[in-house]
Every structure is written in C-alpha cells, then in structure tokens.
Amino acid sequence: MTKDYYKILEVDYDASDEDIRLSYRKLALQWHPDKHKDDSSVTAKFQDINEAYRVLSDPTKRLEYDLSGDYEIDKYSLPEYLARFKGMILTCNGLGINHSSLWSYNQHLKEANECEDGKV
C-alpha cells in the first residue's frame, strides 16, 4: 500500500512549495523522537514525515509521485479525491503554468448563478 504524502504532511494536494515546507517544519518539530523518548511509533511517524517531505519538496519526485499515485476511490472522501485530481490537472504540475489564472469551481458557479438571475 502506498502512503499518501499529502495527508502525512497535512497539506492540500495542490499545496505550494512554501506550504509544504512550513507544514514539514511544524510536524518535524512536533513529532521529533527526542521529544518522545522510547516511543517507536513516534519514530516511525517522524520517518514518514521526512520521507513525504523528500518526495514533495523535489519537483521531479513530486510529479512522479502525483502521476503514479494511488487513486483507489474507497480510500478518499469525494472532496479529497477531486482535490487530488485538481492538483494534477488544473495546476498543470511540472508544466510551469500558474494555477492562479484558472477559474475555481466556486467562481464558475457564482458566475453561472448570476447569469441565471439576470445580473450579467
């Protein structure tokens, strides 16, 4: 079973490099084995956090992970599943396309509702 590095680092699937770095630092400090003496589960969690950061902080490894990720629908809630694909498709990972210029679903829905109401 593959690990969901985004869940391990507690970030969204389309998280920026800065969001990933900040979350990693927070979690690494929180789960550092020196703060939890003689607890092997903490050591394992700390190792998972480091592994997730090594992959998600490297653009090439992150793209490979995103493209070969585990997408079993029963492992994710619908919002998580859609966010995972949004991160792959709408942000065009690895292509250098800035996702801020793309419409969000909410913006599109708002414009559609305004059009129906005759505001546009």
UniProtKB/TrEMBL annotation:
SMART domains: DnaJ. PROSITE patterns: DNAJ_2. Signal peptide: none annotated. Pfam families: DnaJ. Residues 4-69 form the J domain. One of its GO terms (cellular component) is nucleus. This is J domain-containing protein.
